[in-house]
Amino acid sequence: MKSGVTLNGNGIGATVIYCDNPGSNFATQNIIECKGISDIEISNFLIDGGWGSLSKMHAASNKYREYEKGVLLSGCSNVVIHDLKMQYSMGDFIHCKKNTSNVQVYNTVCKPGHDSFDAWSAGDGISIFNNCWGTFINSCIKIHNTKNVQIYKNTFYTDTGSGNAGVEVMGGNVTGLNIHNNIFSTLQLNTIYQDPADGACSGKGTVSNNIFYNSPIYKGINGMNIRSTGNTETSSYSSAKGTKDYGYVADNGTRNLPVYNGSVAPSVTFPTHCSTISTVNGYVSISWTYLNATGYSIKVYNSTSKFDPSHLIYSLNTSQTSANVPISYNGPFAIKISAHDDIHNSWVYNSPVSLFTVNGKTSGAVNSGIFGYLTDAITGQPIQSAVVTLSNNTWNDTQITDVDGLYQFTVNSGKGMYCLTASATGYLNSPELPVNVTGTNTEMNLKMAKAPDYCMPHYVHLDILTNSNEKIPGCEVQIYTPNNDPNNEKPNFCAWANKDSRVSFHLTQDVTYEIVLITPAGQKYTKKVTPNLDQYTITIPAGDTAAIPAMQTVISANCTSKQINNTAAYINASYYDSSSQSSNLTFVLGTMSSGKTFVPSGISGTNDKVSNSIGVVTDSFIVTNHLGNTYTVRIRAQSQTYGTVCENVNVSFPSSNVPNVGSTYMSYFCVLILIIAGLILSKTRII
Predict the structure, then answer these.
(1) Which of 38, 102, 646, 660 has its CA 20 to 30 A from that of 230?
(2) The pLDDT of residue 683
């Protein structure tokens, strides 16, 4: 991230940052890294750690990789983070450190991993509100040596594991800590506490008007002067009972609570209930709030009491939290909003419906120029964050559409003809439209068509089958472009069909490719395909196609050794995949315990790990005191055709060095000299 940047997705259910291989060692990798910057906003998408479930994630051997952050804020200021969700990740969701200050975090959801929010010597001024924090192995919020932290209107809960606490104070000066109007639901160990092992803490604060639902009561924070008032400990509580609260607990007492956002149902934020407004250029912008929903449905009626199809004037399903509704006449109207509660997999409706009255019309706030709304050509939904450009031969300007799809240009360069264009992610670029700017407000509404699912270039999947619908795993597939001769040149792409009889190539739309298929039995066929879809089935006559080629004809592993001197030797290992479809190749030197269990020796090679193994890949190990020992090189790779390939190759050394001929003769000569000397000495003694 850089200063002054807004990173905004299309909603939690529409935009996803996905970690593709969570089992790999990607520790210390920050998904969104912010260092030494200011004035940023991050919103409206999902961060998915990729594990798929908590059970898988926490069964992994590297489950405490707490250095992987969803959002890292280091030395930052003026940060707003909202409407985000993080799930199935072993790292922290949001981590603040090194005097990061003036941070607001709201409308976020964290499916528990490690810590949901950390403020570690973060400076001053942290506001955390309207969030849902889950804990599994640690704490939802950790505060260390950070001043003026406001934690309110949040829901804290435990999912499966015991967790540590809802809010944990880690030590240092935490003056200004205020924890109020939160729900702590079914936390098993602690709700708010300080761990003495983390060091002493100091400062003043308040803990007030919180609900501890089926959770331990707050017992104070060691070293802090805390004013505690109005907190409720209960085993049965909902927002419909007791005093006015700012949270929600399910009546049936389930732990996976709906996320609190200030009400138990969607609420319309504009127009305010029973207000009178004017349309802007014939439209009314309607916005609403409800956390943890991936989909919404809005319906507008021209009646305040009858909500039937005959009075329905507008209907839209969307992942956005706003809509631009065309209304061209005065009168009373009603808004019904429904949101999909993802936690309970149910729809929640605003009740009562929101009412407003239209009286009059206003124009867009453009003094001289052009304005308009950009919408989807099929659904009529506003297209947000699109790039709209207005230009002529000497001047151009660019605007970004807002949540209502509105763009506005002020033209100070005079009257005349201009060119208007628009582009947006997932849509076909609009054609160049001529616009006559007359010096007054000119309205030009644009519609854009969705881009086809097939984008160019694109990964095209080919399923290789016989005409009797039999799979052909191991079939070689060669791809030739139009300017490449299959009879005389190498293919542009080549792959072997996997166990599901599928191969994938990065092909360009509307280009005719020639495909050469070679079955495991050596049968050869030629086909053609012009891709405008992302999947094709290619059939060939049935025959001897069932056998996957023998692994040794495609993949081979070998080991040799070379003596350096009496105490050291080389072990050289090699791996070759003629299909060039292997990845994640590793060489490990070890021994076989009891002939069954492989035990790594800890001796490093020169080329232990190779991401993409092309051609012959070798690795070398140096062993000492090797005489009489047998070593095993374990070679492991991931093959597209065969899956995981693991080969153990043994190398044995003799128990002693065999002497050479020269040294043998020298030994005999030395023995002869000793015998002669002995005879001479014997004769001397006789004399």
Answers:
(1) 102
(2) 42
Task: Please give the angle made by the CA atoms of 457, 463 and 469, to the nearest 5 degrees.
Answer: 155
Predicted local distance difference test score (pLDDT) of residue 365: 53
- Quote the tokens at residue 372: 């308009």
Alpha-helical (H) ranges within 518-610 are 551-554
CA separation for the pair 375, 656 (Å, rounded): 84
Which tokens go with 555?
């993949």
- 3-state SS, 200-263, equals CEECEEEEECCEEECCCCCCCCCCCEEEEECCEEECCCCCCCCCCCCCCCCCCCCCCCCCCCCC
Q: 């360009």: which residue's tokens?
A: 508
**Matching residue, tokens 């993949």:** 555
Among the listed residues 373, 366, 367, the one whose alpha carbon sits nearest the alpha carbon of residue 388: 373
The residue ranges of the chain whose pLDDT is under 50 are: 27-28, 237-263, 343-344, 366, 454-456, 545-548, 658-671, 679, 681-687
pLDDT, tens only, 88-116: 777 788 999 988 998 999 888 886 567 88
Please give the Cα distance from 218 to 199 (Å, whole number).
20
The H or E element that residue 574 is part of is strand 568-577
Q: How far apart are CA 324 and CA 375, in angstroms?
A: 9
Rounded Cα distance, 152 and 12, in Å:
22
Parallel/antiparallel/unpaired status of strands 312-318 and 296-301: antiparallel
Reading phi first (left if > 0) and then psi (alpha if -120 to 50, else beta), residue 390 is in beta
Q: Is the dihedral of CA 423, 424, 429, 432 positive or negative?
A: negative
Nearest to 128 by CA among 116, 120, 114: 116
Q: Which residues contact 662 (CB under 8 A, 6 or more apart)?
A: none
Q: CA-CA distance, 387 to 422, in Å (whole number)?
A: 6
Rg over CA atoms, the chain: 36
The values of phi and psi at residue 24, to 5°, are: -75, 170
The pTM score is 0.42
| 327, 46 contact by CB (below 8 A) | no
Query: In Å, how far from its chain's centre is CA 40?
Result: 20
Helix/strand/coil for 36: coil
- The one-letter amino acid at 172: G
How far is residue 364's CA from residue 369's CA, in Å, rounded to a whole number? 11
DSSP string, 389-440: EEE-SS-EEEEE--TT-EEEEE--S-SEEEEEEEE-TTBPPPPPEEEEE-SS
SS3 assignment for 506-543: EECCCCCEEEEEECCCCCEEEEEECCCCCEEEEEECCC
E strand segments, 469-520: 476-480, 493-496, 502-507, 513-518
Question: How far apart are the C-alpha atoms of 183 and 255, rounded to whole Å?
Answer: 12
Percent helix, strand and coil across the chain, each to the nearest 5: 5, 50, 45
Distance, in Å, from the CA atom of 95 to the CA atom of 100, rounded to the nearest integer, reads 10
Cis preceding linkage at 196, omega within 30: no
- Give Dmax over CA atoms of the chain in angstroms: 148
Of 683, 556, 545, the closest CA to residue 615 belongs to 556
Report the C-alpha gap between 581 and 610 in whole angstroms: 13
Q: Which two tokens stand for residue 234?
A: 């209960």
Identify residue 270 by its one-letter amino acid code. F
